[in-house]
Amino acid sequence: MSQSMEKKKIILTGDRPTGRLHIGHYVGSLRRRVELQNDPSFEKIFIMIADAQALTDNADNPEKLRQNVLEVTLDYLAAGLDPNKVNIFIQSEVPELTELAFYFMNLTTVSRVQRNPTVKTEIQMRNFEANIPLGFFCYPVSQAADIALFHGTVVPVGEDQKPMIELTNEIVRRFNNIYGETLDECEILLPDNQACMRLPGTDGKAKMSKSLGNCIYLSDPEQVVEQKIRSMYTDPTHLKVTDPGHLEGNAVFTYLDAFCRDEHFDKYWQDYKNLQELKDHYTRGGLGDMKCKRFLNQIMQEMLSPIRERRNYWEQHIPDVYDILRQGTTTARTQGKQTIAQVRRAMKIIYLEDTDLQKSQVEKYTITQ
Predict the structure, then answer these.
(1) What is the pTM of this model?
(2) Judging by DSSP bridges, how do beta strands 9-15 and 42-49 pair with one another?
């Protein structure tokens, strides 16, 4: 079997370099990656900058990705990823990923990819309709190859990626059934806080999105974060301080659910012992939105301050950042070559190395006297 109880776990995860990372990325998976890099049960951690995947809907603007590969790497290092513990690499620099994706395309169907709800949502969001770039349509298969090439067993991502993990395991099982146990199935690792599953934008929209302009970026200066929180969507019916407030759809309280801890009240707002007391006061009336926003701002600034400091350091050491990318990509390429060799042997597409095949064909075509 390719998996065993004793085998250590391997993480594969990453992000598309279409812009700076925001706090939705941070609570969705990035924070968890930083925690897991210190967990000895993980043998290897691969963090992929998915520039090839990003080209599927940015083919006419490669310069956008060229600039943002560095931005994402800076955000990774600023968030606390340690290059001595994780391998940060660039997807397009590992051509074995493309090769495995090509083989995987033969193991699933167009209708199966079309049923993927995340794909449907992404197509609608980009207004592709009937004019879907083929590369974009096939990106779930590419993601499966990304995970399988590194024998990824754990994938820390947001809830919206669950259909991708299901498809990955379907393809891996089909490969193993046809060619023999070669690749590993994986499991999703979701945020442990429900509010972090899908953090809304500052405008209260369902998803924080760069294109909607409703993000708080990890690299935002202190005053910008404060301004964004001051304008954050709350409860439109909470017109007076005395009015009862509603929590559902209130972005301020969703963010408090995601980031607030009891000790924050000891530091910043001693009128309350915990978040539930604050919520109770807000819902019965008598508590203004701006007080809640000021409290949230203090919490967010505390969290983002060390991230800003680390980013400032790495911004002054850009050549070192590229050395980190080179080292991580070299490690990823080595692993990719090993896996592709296993895949080719399993599929018996090693014609020039297969002496048994060559010998049998010699015998087949030799004319016996």
Answers:
(1) 0.90
(2) parallel
